[in-house]
Fold DUF485 domain-containing protein.
Amino acid sequence: MYVALHAHAARGGDSVVQSEQERILRNPKFQELVRTRSGFAWTLAAVMLAIYLGFIFLVAFAHDLMAAKVGGGVTSVGIVLGVVVIVSAFLLTGIYVQRANGRFDELTRDLQKDIA
């Protein structure tokens, strides 16, 4: 459908492509997809920002805590929390990918059926 619309546009049918785009943008399923995906992405971004800011505040204001040794070895709490920050970034990315491959793909398929 995409190729056909653009082939038509090349022959001077820009208004057809534009009206098709407007029809898709007004589609409730498209709006739900955009709203759901954006809301979830912003939520994960806020969680990651809170994790990073929490770590930075601990580094800045809790020197003794961050310098404390773990288990009598040479590793400090700061190193452990730094690893937690990195691992949490991977986990949140995995959560987003799982949602994208599940719910967002489902919404996209529903939208494609609706506009076909």
